[in-house]
Specification:
Belongs to the sugar phosphate cyclases superfamily. Dehydroquinate synthase family. This protein is of the alpha/beta class and 358 residues long. It has helices at residues 22-25, 29-33, 44-57, 77-89, 104-116, 132-135, 173-188, 192-199, 209-229, 244-254, 261-275, 281-290, 296-300, 303-311, 339-357; strands spanning 2-6, 12-17, 38-43, 63-68, 97-102, 122-127, 140-145, 148-155, 160-164, 321-328, 331-337. It contains 15 helices and eleven strands. It has a seven-stranded mixed beta sheet. Bound molecules: nicotinamide-adenine-dinucleotide (NAD), the ligand O=C(O)C(=O)C[C@@H](O)[C@H](O)[C@H](O)COP(=O)(O)O and zinc ion.
Length: 358
Amino acid sequence: MQTVEVNTAPDYRVHIGHGAYQQFKDEYRPLLNGADKIAVVADEQAWSHHGSLLLDALGGLDLRVLKIPAGEQAKNADTFMAIHSFLLENNCSRKSVLIAFGGGAAGDVAGFAASTFMRGIVYFQCPTTILAHDSAVGGKTAINHPSGKNMIGTFYQPAAVLYETRTLATLPEGEVRSGMAEVIKHAFISNPGWLEELLKIRQFSAMPDKELETHLAKGIAVKAAIVEEDEQEHGARKFLNFGHTLAHAIEGNAGYGQVTHGEAVALGMVFDLLIEEHPRTDEYVDWCRANGYPLNLLTALAFDNLLPYMKRDKKSSGGELVFIALPETGVPAVAVLTEEKARIIYGKLQNKIREVLA
Ligand SMILES: NC(=O)c1ccc[n+]([C@@H]2O[C@H](COP(=O)([O-])OP(=O)(O)OC[C@H]3O[C@@H](n4cnc5c(N)ncnc54)[C@H](O)[C@@H]3O)[C@@H](O)[C@H]2O)c1
Ligand SMILES: O=C(O)C(=O)C[C@@H](O)[C@H](O)[C@H](O)COP(=O)(O)O
Ligand SMILES: [Zn+2]
């Protein structure tokens, strides 16, 4: 078991590994025993595979379980209201505890509900995807708006994150790919040696569990350090958005859930790498090709369809276009581009991908 501390106020811990839910029996038992109700909000798919692991760890406690739609389809106002209705129907109060169980989508919407129910109740994150090594840590909660990704949400830290890595065994290939994009994002913005190691991976399925766990813990440590420095994204936290200006536009334009978040981020990082012509760009594009990221999407997507979403990005003000450039690995920087410059880079990106796929 690995543990990463997140020194926000209040601070909390991320427990990563086989048997992470044991912490519910040990360290967090007093907190759970003190709750008047415990509500579990679970992604229905994740619950069908792994709910029993959580139930075993919470044995003897009176739980109320709400299953929400699988994945991105849950990140909307309907599910948000359904969670609140469920909490009210079950007579939850300010002394109740919520446990979010699932990938980033379930974690984001359940975290948002926890942060707003009676103005905020204690909650735990129990991530079940690779990508959620990112989403479960750092306290960003959200639902989507048709006009933009994560447009409605809060900063609200969990009491702890219990990351049972046995849950990752049932992830479909596309979700492994999606999650690994946020892993390599953490490497790009922090650590050339680690990036080197990740760029050697040509097939995620060949990666041993222990190695994956180490990458997840490293990613969580990178994220924790940035969140500690800038919890509410006035400065350094923007670097965690590497690849995301274009990614969120791709997701919004396609319709939420049509392209996985991580796959969109993988494509968005190509754009951000091209801003300062990062020396590993070609190698990274080849890594994306080898690992099956949908590079072809970019050749079909017109810049003008993505532009309105990028102008509404949360890093932007007054319609400017804000990206995270990477002049060298580990040295991210905010880049404000003119529309003309962004269009030129997008054209370069499309040409590069056409060459690689030819
Ligand atoms: N809050 C943050 O800081 C943050 C960070 C990164 C991403 N996000 C958000 O996270 C979301 C993406 O999260 P995600 O990639 O975890 O996707 P997801 O939550 O949409 O889950 C993807 C799919 O995997 C299924 N699933 C979940 N766990 C499973 C398991 N163990 N076995 C089999 N299937 C399983 C889900 O039912 C779903 O169909 C996006 O909405 C993104 O915006 C938030
Ligand atoms: O935690 C952060 O900060 C991030 O930017 C992490 C991202 O991977 C994540 O997708 C996040 O939800 C994006 O936030 P947003 O504020 O751009 O919606
Ligand atoms: Zn992300």
